[in-house]
C-alpha cells in the first residue's frame, strides 16, 4: 500500500487494512473503564445490531488510476444529486448519486504530477475539502493540502486555498485558486488536516504540532501549549466577510493572507499570540466535526504511544479551551509508562482520573480515549442526526485507521463528559481515514486505506441524494434554473 495516513511517530505501528490486527491486551483497570477510556482488543469482532448495518457505496474499482485514495466526501447541498470525493493524491472527483458512479472528468485535479500544487505521500496530500455554506449561490469551496516544492523552504507548507466551480458546468471547477492561509510546516508528519464551517459561519481549521515524537521533546514549549504558533491548534477565521468588526491577521502565517480574524477570537489583538487560535493543546487533530443540532465540536486527536483521544468542546464553553498536549495524554501525564514525553515546564498534575476541566490546570481531558497498542490513528466522526436509522439517533461515531473498528457512543451527554460511554459497533474497517455527513444527516465511512467508501443504513441500502427537497425549487430566490417550467 502506498499511503500512510496520520499515524503516530513510529512507523512500525502502521497496519494496513488487509492485515489482521492482533489483540492489544485485556480489559483496562477499573479506574480507566470508569472514565470511558478503553483498552479493548482490536481483534474483537463486532457487528451492528440489525436492522442497522453498513454497505459499500464506492468500491476500489470505481476510482480512476492515480486518484485511488478517498480522504473526504462532501455534499455541497446545491440541490443536485452530486457529491465530491477528495482523494489524497489531489484529485477531486464527482459522485453521481442517482447513477451510483464517478464521472469520468474530475471536478478539479490538483495533483503535482499533472502540474497541481499538492504534495502527496505518507501523511501529506490533499487532506480536507469543505463547501461554502452558501455553495449553491457562491460555487466556492476550500481545500487543505500540503504544498509541493515552489522554492526554498516551501515544501510541505500547509495551504488553505479557495476555488470556484465553473459558471458553465457545475461538474467542473476553475483550475485557478486563491491562497487563503499558508502555514510553515517543514515536518512531514502531524499536519492535522480538517476544515469545517461552524454554525457561526466562520471556517475552523485543525493543525497538528510541529511533528516529531512528543513534539520533539519540547515539553510545555512545544507547539500545542504555545499561543504564538498556529501548530497544534484549532483555528478560526473569517473567509466570508461576515464579521464587520474583524481584524487583519497578524504575522503568524507565511506570505499573503486572504481572510480576516473574527473579533470574538480569544487572542485577537493580543501579541505575541496568534489571533487565529481558537483552542490549544492538540497533537494531531486529523478529523473534527460540529454537531449539526447543538454546535458542539467533536475532535479526534491522534495520540503518541498510549492514548488516542476524542475531545468534546461544547458550544457553551468559552474559548480558548486547552486539551493538554504535550503536558497530558489521555487522562494522565504525557510522561506515562509508554509515551514517556517530556513534561518540562508543565504544571504538576499526576492525576489519572478524567476531569472536565481539570481543577489543577484547567486542561480538558478527553471524553473518550483508546489504548494505542492497536489503536494507531483515531478518526473523529459525526453525531448521527439523520432519520433513516432511528436506532442510532444522537449517537456519535468514530474509528481508527489501524485498529479497523468503528465505535459509537451508548451514553452521550456532552454536559456530563465523565459519564460518556461507547462500544465497538462494527469490524473490518482497517484504513478508515474519516467519516462524512450528507445534507440529510446520513453518515458515510471513508475507508481510504482500502480505496472504498461505505454508508450506514437501516438494511435498505445506501441512501441516494434525490436533488431537490419538496420546497427547494428556487421559487423564493427567483432562480429559474431550478424550475421545470417558467410561468408569466
Q: Which architecture does the CATH hierarchy give at level 2?
A: 6 Propeller
CATH class: Mainly Beta
Q: What's the quaternary structure here?
A: single chain
- Helix fraction? under 10%
Largest sheet: 5 strands, mixed
How would you describe this structure to a colleague?
This protein is an all-beta fold. It has a single domain (11-482), classed as TolB, C-terminal domain (Neuraminidase), CATH 2.120.10.30. Helices cover 2% and strands 26% of the residues. The chain has 3 helices and 28 strands. It has helices at 30-33, 135-138, 214-217; strands spanning 37-38, 53-58, 70-74, 82-87, 91-96, 101-102, 108-109, 126-131, 140-146, 158-164, 178-183, 194-197, 203-207, 233-237, 277-279, 287-290, 297-301, 307-313, 328-329, 332-333, 368-371, 378-379, 397-400, 406-411, 421-426, 434-437, 443-447, 452-457. The chain has a 5-stranded mixed beta sheet with strand order 1-21-18-17-16, with no helix packed on it. Strands 3, 4, 5, 6 and 7 form a 5-stranded antiparallel beta sheet that branches. A hairpin with a 5-residue loop joins β23 (397-400) and β24. The radius of gyration is 21 Å and the shape is globular. The termini are far apart. 53% of the residues are buried. Residues 1-34 and 468-488 have low confidence and may be disordered.
